[in-house]
Amino acid sequence: MDEETNDKSATPRVGATTNLPHDRMTVQRFREAFPRARWSDSLNAWFVPGRTAQRRISRWLAEMEAEADTFADEKGRDAFAFDPIESRYLEAAPASFQIRTPYSRTVINEIREIPYARWDADRRLWTVPYRSFGELRQHWPAIETAAKRSEPDVRRARRETIRGTEEDEASKARTRERRRKRYPVPSDDCPPFENAVGTHVGVVFFTGTDGELADPATINAYYFPAEGREYVWVSWRQGGLEELVTTWPTRTPPGKDDLDRGWWLPTLEELRVARRDAKSRWRAKQRRNKDNSF
Question: Is the pTM of this model over 0.70?
């Protein structure tokens, strides 16, 4: 609860402050809802007196936001009706768009860039409100292209095409290497164990090392260019949702020295990706437990 000192006395007044968009209509509606509100030059904000002021302001702002969302959804519906997206992966349901595609990391990354997109675990689909139609249209070509590439028959055909080729062997080798859950770090500059660390394979938690030397050929092929330093293999694990959420990000992105070293303190964007992946794993585990309980 905020307090404002009245210019005519030293007695503080009980109430709350709020900042509003600088448009005449919003201010007018605010003054109608709060006739006792006054502009405070000292606080550079609107001041509403009363012990329940903060609660009343929050309720009013929520109502305004809901009204704005409704208007934005109506505009999105009109835009879609005028110029619809025709795709077997997209359904225009009454409440929102519904997106069903084969699993694709590219699809997931594209949809996550759309404001207010949500994963519905029960129905196994993504929902996007109509207010985000503009952003949905912007990302849709990449979404549909990735979805088509991820169809089971297309995947099978692609695997058959490269079967036995050098590309196929290289892909299998990368998969085998990743499953070993090891990572090269300089022998004289090891990262902290059991803390979130940014790497060329994402945010991980290093668990220990037996001192085995990492050969430069493997580092160059699957991780990053080795800079003539001596590296050792360190075991790693994926982070859980709770420990990733409580990890404090660095404000400084990794520099060249960090990239050459192979590890750094994770940035907020890196942690967001890791947290989303951890949340997906957690939901999948919950769903499996639920299915096994029947």
Answer: no
